[in-house]
Automatic annotation (TrEMBL), chains A, B:
GO terms for cellular component: cytoplasm. It comes from Sulfitobacter delicatus. InterPro entries: NAD(P)-bd_dom_sf, ODC_Mu_crystall, ODC_N. This is Ornithine cyclodeaminase. SUPFAM superfamilies: NAD(P)-binding Rossmann-fold domains.
Length: 321, 321
């Protein structure tokens, strides 16, 4: 059984391998060729903590994943990170344990970054360069780095906007340090109007992005809303969009950005699975005037895919050594 | 993070520590002081395999468990065991991974053995000695060894009965090798009539034990029925019993021995949780004439309890070295 800690995972990680695996997982998910049972939840009220267990398998791949993610929100006071977790891989042909990836949540952050980047690349207008990232946390970094890595032929121009200007400056400086083109903005309306692609990464419970700010041709990727009550996009913006895309309709309509869309007259069957766009089964953006929105809530099969990609990259590295 | 393989787990395993932990888990479960979310299931049709993921926590204990159990039934043809699995422990106060117990299913067999033994000890007539075990597989061994270990002051007399007389002889010889008193029987009716405690451990789909064979004072522990359609005890035997005990009523009534009892006029609220008997909240057996039945389908909190017991025993061993 392979046992890798976070830095070992990072050492052998290959972003392009992982991106391809996650694209395949989205397509398989859209086509029903996956297993993704309901998420298991445990709550620890006394310790202000919780645990989610996700399991997933892409049919035809060699392994399935059991991902454990914990959040214990009093940990920082003890000098510990609030998030932790690991991915366990098992063989889908013998049931034997294959690997424990003690990533402390890093693979989840990375698959979320890659998922957003895959959606932004697929749905942004041809040749887009101007990308606004709303929010200054971990996903600000992951979304920017992953998107630029998936579009190496074109230098993107990132604008970072958050409630805390100092945090935006810090994130911007980090991205510049990685060689990305980045600046900050304090006027969210102006920044939204100027952007071709908007990526929202916040835990907002009130809509941040208003309908009238979004100009024709804009694509929005929303990765922040991951539980009921969170909402980054104005409901009338969702209602007016030309194309609604999601990773899993059941999740987006339950606790994602599209949870309120049905009340505004959108039908659930109008929401297109990202996998159908990636496979070409749906044409995606029709022209450079459409407003498109992708809402990603996260799939267990992304966890399975990225975990297998780690093992694949590790094997390649080993055999080339 | 502690990482123990099967033999390391067996080396530090302390049966009495584990039995106490499991008793506490039964009591906590009966009193509602546990978390045990629905079991997650994955199926792998092409490989003739499946996977169950159970999660559990006994409130107030330091860790929760995520147990993965796989069964791939074509493995023996490849020279591999059909069952595999592991228990993962996480801190209930910080969410950090505590241990991976790569037990290959041994801890599940042991907690099933201990659970049955705890029930048999609690519900058998005072001073019982004659124990019939029906079935000659792994649980035949675990039930006998655990029950004798929990009643060290009294030499029990085990009778092993199974469809395959040669397998019964093998099991019997193994138990004798462990210093237990054991013999075999081929006439199940006579053996049942003679026994004070009957332990059924088979995957039978037709009732094995008939009502008229069971004499007053007999206690029956059924551990075999673990999925819908399995049944070891005649429905009219269950209907006529003086006391019905289970680990979890929802499971026993869904896919255990009591699944058909309601149709025979037994009420679900007549089924007493084993934990209430262990705690003294329910008096258990009233006299030496009652026929009592315990149906055990297995609890995730047993897995949590036995895993913590392994860590406790290991710590004790380490500190005494």
């Amino acid at each position: 059984m392979i046992d890798l800690n976070k830095s070992q995972i990072q050492d052998c990680f290959d972003l392009q391998t992982a991106a391809r695996a996650i694209e395949n997982a989205y397509i398989a998910s859209a086509e029903g060729r996956v297993q993704a049972p309901p998420v298991t939840y445990l709550g620890f009220e006394d310790a202000n903590g919780d645990c989610h267990v996700k399991t997933g398998h892409v049919q035809g791949t060699e392994g399935f994943v059991i991902k454990v993610a914990t959040g214990f929100y009093d940990n920082p006071a003890k000098g510990l990170p609030s998030s932790n977790g690991l991915n366990l891989m098992f063989s889908a042909t013998t049931g034997a344990p294959l690997a424990i990836l003690r990533d402390e949540g890093w693979l989840t952050d990375m698959r979320t970054g890659l998922g957003g980047a895959i959606a932004s690349r697929a749905l942004g207008v041809d040749g887009f360069k101007g990308v606004l990232i709303v929010g200054t946390g971990l996903q600000c970094r992951f979304q920017a780095r992953c998107l630029q890595a998936l579009i190496p032929e074109r230098k993107l121009s990132f604008t970072i906007c958050g409630r805390d200007a100092a945090k935006a400056e810090t994130a911007c400086a980090e991205l510049q340090g990685d060689g990305l083109s980045a600046n900050t903005a304090t006027d969210l309306e102006a920044a939204t109007r100027a952007a071709q692609v908007v990526i929202t990464t916040t835990p907002a419970k009130m809509p941040l992005i208003q309908r009238e700010w979004v100009t024709p041709g804009t694509h929005i990727t929303a990765v922040g809303a991951d539980s009921p009550g969170k909402q980054e996009l104005a409901t009338d913006l969702v209602a007016a969009a030309d194309l609604l895309v999601c990773d899993l309709a059941a999740q987006s309509l339950h606790h994602g950005e599209f949870a309120r869309a049905e009340a505004e007259g959108r039908r659930a069957d109008e929401v297109i699975a990202l996998g159908h766009i990636l496979s070409g089964a749906h044409p995606g953006r029709a022209d450079n005037k459409q407003i498109t929105i992708a809402d990603l809530t996260g799939l267990a099969v992304q966890d399975a895919a990225i975990s297998l990609a780690v093992l694949e990259a590790r094997n390649t590295e080993h055999s080339s050594n």
